[in-house]
Amino acid sequence: SIACRLLGKKDDAGQIMERARRIDPKNPAVLYQCAVAAQVSGNLNAAIDLAALIKTSDEIPHAKLFHSNLLSQAGRNEEAIHELSDFLDTAPESELANAARQTLAEIYVEEGELLKANEAIEMAIANDPTNVHSLVLAAQLYRRMENAEDAEAALDKAYRVVVDDTPMHHLEILGNELGVAERWAEAANIFAKLVDASEDSPLTRKYIHACFQGSKLGEALSVCRQLRSAKGPLKFVTEVEIGILEETGDLTGARS
Q1: Residues 40, 227: Cα–Cα separation, whole Å
Q2: 249 — alpha (psi -120 to 50), left (phi > 0) or beta?
Q3: What's the pLDDT score for residue 19?
Q4: DSSP 234
Q5: Using DSSP, how many helices (H) and how many strands (E) does the chain show?
Q6: Contact predicate 224/237, CB 8 Å
Q7: Mean of the pLDDT values across residues 136-159?
Q8: Distances in whole angstroms, Cα of residue 81 to Cα of each of 75, 132, 146
């Protein structure tokens, strides 16, 4: 990525700040990429300091939101809440406002402030009723509040409102949550939209597992065979294939 080319991954926080200033100390886009690189490399303090330099920049509309997320990752939740609240007071565009409320809800859950989390996520859903991420967060929150009926309803709606251009990261968290709810066939349907069946990735393995648990054995077996053809023998794939063949009564195939 641009960020990783700009900065060495093993640099300490001071080196990252110094290199960012040498590259172009007044360019918000450069500083943002440097902050991303610092975050990726685990240098949260440098990332926070760099993001702070651009959080009021008109060129990077989401910079304050990015800075708030970094504060939260660093365990500085009180500062993150304050900054997110200030950000929402500026009436940002709808998509950024939703992202801020989603982050607020997650922080409040982490802090055990479930009523405040509920208020934030309900406002996000009121603003965009078909946002899959918000609906999944609502389902998780309601389950945490032991409100099984509302949790199920929110998850049902999240699944129903998926469309062709639903963001990939929304689909992934929906698939994960469907798995938590043991709605495996639906989880498999969501993961199918994301995976490259020729690549052995954690997501592909989640898809295979969901297919197996959701009795979509033909799909699971097809992906296993594609993976074996592309990557050679893989322990996980072999175990799933054997399980499927045993499940379907193909004992000869399972032994071969």
Answers
A1: 29
A2: left
A3: 65
A4: -
A5: 16, 0
A6: yes
A7: 97
A8: 11, 23, 25
> Rounded to two decimals, what is the model's pTM?
0.82
Q: Of 14-18, 65-69, 83-87, which gets the smallest average pLDDT?
A: 14-18
Kindly state the tokens that stand for 7. Answer: 């900065």
Per-residue 3-state assignment (H helix, E strand, C coil) for 179-246: HHCCCHHHHHHHHCCCCCCCCCCHHHHHHHHHHHHCCCHHHHHHHHHHHHHHHCCCHHHHHHHHHHHH
Nearest to 206 by CA among 218, 226, 190, 222: 190
Give the max Cα distance, the chain: 68
- What token pair was written down for 160? 């129903």
b/e per residue 143-159 (b: at least 16 CB within 10 A): beeeeeeebeebbebbb
90 class by beta-carbon count within 10 Å (0-12 exposed, 13-18 middle, 19+ buried)? exposed
Give the angle 163-167-168 at the CA atoms, nearest 5°: 110
- Per the structure block, which two tokens stand in for 87? 């950000």
A 10 A CB-CB count for 226 gives 16
> How big is the chain, counted in residues?
256
Here the tokens at position 196 are: 């490259």
Of the candidates 50, 47, 34, 97, which has an alpha carbon nearest to the alpha carbon of residue 73?
Answer: 47
The token pair at 3 is: 């960020």
The predicted-structure confidence for 193-224, as pLDDT tens digits, reads as follows 999 988 999 999 999 999 999 999 999 999 99
